[in-house]
């Protein structure tokens, strides 16, 4: 694990313990739609959380998306992730797959997920079968739709903010139609990070009947959690998260005549605040919700389990400056620029022995090994179930990595030669040693932690 992550985890744990202490045996109140002040609380403390009810989305899109979810499940294409939380390796209770822009990845809780590419006609991607190809296309369409709705909702938010001084209804709006004839979000013009299109969706699935243990929500007593309190990580600052919810009648479940199945809900709370009541919003099949603007930063959310099996498609703007295939390929090219194959004898040589050049290559060596190759291969063959998209690039990255291994050996052989002054060797080692040590530690960590 990265040192910074460990440090942040530690700080968070201390803060959390303090909150729980302050709370003692009591619980903080939370409100649901059954409570009188629910809508007022929504408007005052959670206005950037918005729901669009099932009716507002075209019914064909519901059908296509719901069929896609079921196809993923039918073909065994959803997986529990081994994530790292507070220094422990844990399997997520929800089963997941990342779908998104070709070549994009999303990193959460020390795990990098590789997007199964969503299909656009012009792309030459071979899917394992038509059903999975259709499924990826469905999430592409859902993504376009949710993005258009996000733009509307952000505009509405801006209008509401400007009108805040004017009297308003008490009820937050449930949009039933696309209402895009509103002023632009960023009237000043220029790019607005908040309205970047979603580039990936993380699909979640859980059947509570087959989960023997789910954690109880600890602060409010909201019930069993499928996903614990968190902020979504690794997103563009202030970008919205848009989620489509689909719970359905499971095969083994016996419908009970007079008691409703308990509903799946989203819990929201203000981060590190035990004064403001929590907020629980039940979801029906086909509802979508949006965490607009900076809501994901100021608030935490959790998913409270209902009794039915449930899918969600969570669309996000992943921060991908170091997370695309294009990026890592170009990094590898940079590292390998220092490698020269002598045409006379076919031997590998280093072009430069400058400390900075060598160090950069070792940095990239670590990056491609731990952030890409090990992450990919640890997740096994899950991506092959969909398409051939990642196969060739991963073989190529591995090939680059092998060349970098050779480069490291060349440096170490080189500095053993007698011609080097002590200072020269020290200079190189001073920069390289930390990276080589990091490599050794990370290799050991991977061996230990992933063995389980
Ligand atoms: O399933 C949901 O509604 C949200 C899940 C979630 O919070 C996440 O995947 O980050
Ligand atoms: Fe989340």
Ordered list of secondary-structure elements with their pairings:
Layout: H1 3-23, E1 30-31, H2 38-45, E2 49-52, H3 59-74, E3 79-85, E4 88-100, E5 105-108, E6 111-114, E7 116-117, H4 130-162, E8 200-206, E9 225-230, E10 241-247, E11 265-270, E12 278-282, E13 288-291, H5 295-298, E14 299-304, E15 310-316, H6 325-336, E16 339-341, E17 348-350, H7 355-378, H8 391-416, H9 422-451
Parallel strand pairs: 1-12, 4-7
Antiparallel strand pairs: 2-13, 3-4, 4-8, 5-6, 8-15, 9-14, 10-13, 10-15, 11-12, 11-14, 16-17
Helix pairs in contact: 3-4, 6-7, 6-8, 7-8, 7-9
Description:
The structure is a single chain. This protein is α+β, with helices and mostly antiparallel strands and 452 residues long. The protein has two domains: 3-316, Alpha-ketoglutarate-dependent dioxygenase AlkB-like (Jelly Rolls, Sandwich); 325-451, FTO C-terminal domain (Methane Monooxygenase Hydroxylase, Chain G, domain 1), CATH 1.20.58.1470. It has helices at residues 3-23, 38-45, 59-74, 130-162, 295-298, 325-336, 355-378, 391-416, 422-451, and strands at 30-31, 49-52, 79-85, 88-100, 105-108, 111-114, 116-117, 200-206, 225-230, 241-247, 265-270, 278-282, 288-291, 299-304, 310-316, 339-341, 348-350. Strands 2, 3, 4, 7, 8, 10, 13 and 15 form an eight-stranded mixed beta sheet that branches. Helix 7 (355-378) runs antiparallel to helix 8 (391-416). The longest helix has 33 residues, at 130-162. The two termini are 16 Å apart. 32% of the residues are buried. It binds 2-oxoglutaric acid and fe (ii) ion (FE2). Residues 202, 204, 227, 232, 243, 266, 301, 303, 312, 314 line the site of 2-oxoglutaric acid.
């Amino acid at each position: 694990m990265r040192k910074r992550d460990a440090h942040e985890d530690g700080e968070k744990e201390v803060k959390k313990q303090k909150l729980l202490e302050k709370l003692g045996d009591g619980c903080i109140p939370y409100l649901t739609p059954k409570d009188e002040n629910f809508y007022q609380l929504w408007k005052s403390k959670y206005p950037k959380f918005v729901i669009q009810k099932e009716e507002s989305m075209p019914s064909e899109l519901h059908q296509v998306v719901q069929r896609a979810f079921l196809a993923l499940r039918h073909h065994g294409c959803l997986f529990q992730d081994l994530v790292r939380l507070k220094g422990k390796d844990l399997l997520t209770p929800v089963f997941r797959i990342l779908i998104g822009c070709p070549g994009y990845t999303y990193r959460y809780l020390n795990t990098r997920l590789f997007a199964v590419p969503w299909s656009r006609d012009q792309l030459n991607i071979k899917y394992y079968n038509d059903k999975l190809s259709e499924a990826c296309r469905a999430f592409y369409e859902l993504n376009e739709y949710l993005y258009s709705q996000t733009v509307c909702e952000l505009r509405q938010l801006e209008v509401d903010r400007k009108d805040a001084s004017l009297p308003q209804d008490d009820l937050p709006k449930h949009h039933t139609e696309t209402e895009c004839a509103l002023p632009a979000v960023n009237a000043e013009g220029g790019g607005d990070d908040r309205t970047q299109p979603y580039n990936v969706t993380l699909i979640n699935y859980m059947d509570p009947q087959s989960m023997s243990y789910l954690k109880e929500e600890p602060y409010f007593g909201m019930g069993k959690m499928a996903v614990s309190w968190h902020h979504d990580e690794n997103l563009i600052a202030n970008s919205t998260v848009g989620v489509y919810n689909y719970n359905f009648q499971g095969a083994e479940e016996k419908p009970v005549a007079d008691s409703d199945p308990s509903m799946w809900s989203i819990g929201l709370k203000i981060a590190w605040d035990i004064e403001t009541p929590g907020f629980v919003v039940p979801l029906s099949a086909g509802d979508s919700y949006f965490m607009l603007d900076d809501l994901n930063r100021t608030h935490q959310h959790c998913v409270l389990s209902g009794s039915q099996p449930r899918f969600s498609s969570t669309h996000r703007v992943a921060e991908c400056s170091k997370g695309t295939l294009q990026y890592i390929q170009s990094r590898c090219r940079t590292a390998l620029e220092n490698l020269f194959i002598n045409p006379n004898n076919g031997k590998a040589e280093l072009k430069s022995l400058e400390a900075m050049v060598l160090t950069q290559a070792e940095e990239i060596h670590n990056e491609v090994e731990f952030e890409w190759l090990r992450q990919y291969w640890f997740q096994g063959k899950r991506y092959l179930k969909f398409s051939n998209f990642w196969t060739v690039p991963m073989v190529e990255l591995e090939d680059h990595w092998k060349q970098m291994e050779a480069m490291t050996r060349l440096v170490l052989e080189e500095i053993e030669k007698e011609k080097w002054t002590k200072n020269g060797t020290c200079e190189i080692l001073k920069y390289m040693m930390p990276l080589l040590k990091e490599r050794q530690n990370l290799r050991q960590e991977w061996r230990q932690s992933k063995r389980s």
